[in-house]
Specification:
26% of the residues lie in helices and 23% in strands. The protein contains 14 helices and 24 strands.
């Protein structure tokens, strides 16, 4: 199938690019064929974010979004930030002492999944073709090495790679230009960065793991628009990161924990830290008497400006979190992803209008990006993450307060963090074990019951999408040196060390549990695990996360 533009991923970046392309094409009386492929069973099924949403990019893309019927969410009514010492002790930080980037006046508590569903409706009404349930499994290249499109994965293949009765071959989607908007640690984006050496002038990308739950709570305790952030306990000195609880619509709250994946102790379990977090009195007061209704996890790319790769290459562009456009100083990436997609569309529309046949390296996109408010926003926040890594939570927080509130992000120097997250782990022999309490079934829960609430489904008789470069490494190296951290950093119980009756150990991969968070691809200390896309429509089915 031939298109002018193929977009991989129906998230905020990909859909904003699609909408903007068709808007501009209508203004120019230009005919375009634009296609979006999405690996989730429907648009929004794989979308997970906090989310406190800054509407700046949305206001540019659809200035009349309210008149068009978008119920965005609850407008932020109050902002609270706490420093937690333990389950009971919490110190509220005065707003005047909070970095300006973390103030949320004018923002909204939203479901990003629902926003992408609305954007998909708008894109289709503009003439975009959207194919949910089709996973982009392979990049296609021209004879000269330029990208010419993607191939979707074959469906109906058994675990040995043999066709089943339900076999359906994948499709080749060819395009003049292909936009990759897979989200954080996209497996095709990872291939492109390596193939075209796009990160040669960038710092290593840095990541966090966000784990989120959705709760129905007592209406008497619901405070629509209240935004709460926390630092300190439970992670404490074990890892950087922070917690959140947002009061959304319909007597619901969303809460979660972001664990910086630069942590050193292989015994740390982000999932168990998040379960422990809910026992903090500030959170517990709202959850008491409530019911957990959904669960999910997703890695976030938090390296920011310093880690941005070159985003153009022959035949395409990297946009959104596939490139790493999230602003970690704001803990927000949706508006930045949308803007990057819109910039890509503005670059492309002029190129396509000139009769361009495709396959070129659109370096103009880099120039257009540099002239945008997005570049300025990321540049002003460039020191936020490195300061936290270098100076710790307290002194890093002081530095960021001065940087953002006094110098507006324009200090005459740049901090760098050049050690990748996977290389941070220390040997288990040098670290203390962390004892996590058993879940109580009221506030804290186990992994398997959590995965159940993510509505995750994979056909079990299909090739494993979690590839080991060397099957001996988990036991021969990672278990010996790091007590195999995959069994703890995975928030879905995918990886286990099992023993038979003769006490022979094996590394077991429960790929059907995978919620597509990509943490294993990022944090494995041997970089031995590669996440590739499973059969289309597999994975989580998030309702309004």
């Amino acid at each position: 199938m031939e298109f002018d533009v193929v977009i991989v991923g129906a998230g905020p970046a990909g859909l904003s690019a699609a909408c903007r392309l068709m808007q501009q094409a209508q203004v120019n009386d230009q005919e375009l064929m634009v296609c979006v492929v999405e690996k989730g069973s429907e648009v929004g099924a794989h979308i997970l974010s906090g989310a406190v949403f800054e509407p700046r990019a949305l206001n540019e893309l659809f200035p009349d979004w309210e008149e068009q019927g978008l119920a965005l969410g609850e407008k932020v009514s109050a902002d609270e930030i706490y420093l937690f010492k333990d389950e009971q002790k919490a110190t509220k930080i005065p707003n005047c002492m909070v970095p300006s980037t973390m103030h949320n006046e004018g923002n909204y508590v939203i479901s990003l999944g629902n926003l992408t569903r609305w954007l998909a409706e708008k894109a289709e009404s503009l003439g975009v073709e959207i194919f949910p349930g089709f996973a982009a499994a392979e990049i296609l290249y021209r004879d000269d090495g330029a990208v010419k499109g993607i191939a979707t994965g074959d469906m109906g293949v058994d675990e040995n790679g043999q066709p089943k009765d339900s076999y359906m071959p994948g499709m080749e989607l060819h395009a003049k230009y292909t936009l990759f908007a897979e989200g954080c640690r996209g497996h095709l984006g990872k291939e492109l960065i390596s193939r075209f050496n796009l990160d040669s002038d960038s710092d290593p990308q840095h990541y966090g793991l966000g784990i989120k739950e959705l709760w129905d709570i007592d209406p008497a305790k619901h405070k629509p628009g209240l935004v709460i952030h926390g630092a300190g306990w439970p992670l404490g000195k074990n890892a950087a990161g922070g917690s959140f609880l947002y009061h959304s619509e319909n007597n619901q709250v969303v809460l979660g924990l972001i664990t910086d994946l630069s942590y050193e102790n292989p015994y740390l379990s982000p999932f168990d830290e998040m379960q422990r977090m809910k026992h903090q009195s500030v959170f517990k007061q709202y959850l008491d008497g409530g019911k957990r209704v959904s669960y999910g996890a997703r890695a976030i790319a938090k390296g920011g400006f310093n880690s941005l790769p070159k985003m153009s290459f022959a035949g395409g562009l990297l946009i959104g979190c596939d490139a790493g456009t999230l602003n970690f100083a704001k803990i927000k990436g949706s508006h930045t992803a949308m803007k990057s997609g819109m910039i890509a569309a503005d670059t492309l529309i002029g190129v396509l209008a000139s009769g361009d046949g495709g396959g070129k390296d659109l370096t103009q996109f880099g120039e257009d990006f540099k002239r945008s408010w997005l570049n300025e926003e990321l540049q002003c926040s460039r020191n936020f993450g490195p300061a936290m890594h270098k100076f710790g939570m307290v002194f890093g927080g002081v530095f960021n307060y001065l940087d953002q509130n006094c110098f507006k992000g324009k200090l005459p120097f740049t901090l760098h963090d050049l050690k990748p997250d996977f290389a941070q782990l220390k040997p288990a022999s040098e670290c203390h074990k962390i004892d996590y309490a058993k879940p109580d079934g009221v506030f804290s829960f186990d992994k398997l019951s959590s995965v159940f609430l993510s509505n995750t489904h994979h056909a079990e008789d299909q090739p494993c999408h979690l590839k080991l470069q060397d099957a001996t490494i988990p036991l021969a190296h990672n278990l010996v040196l790091f007590d195999e951290p995959a069994q703890r950093f995975c928030p879905a119980g995918v990886y286990e060390i099992v023993e038979d009756e003769q006490h022979n150990k094996a590394f077991q991969i429960n790929s059907q549990n995978c919620v597509h968070c990509k943490t294993c691809d990022i944090k494995d200390p041997s970089q031995n695990i590669t996440w590739v896309t499973p059969e289309g429509a597999g994975g989580p089915n998030y309702p309004n996360m």
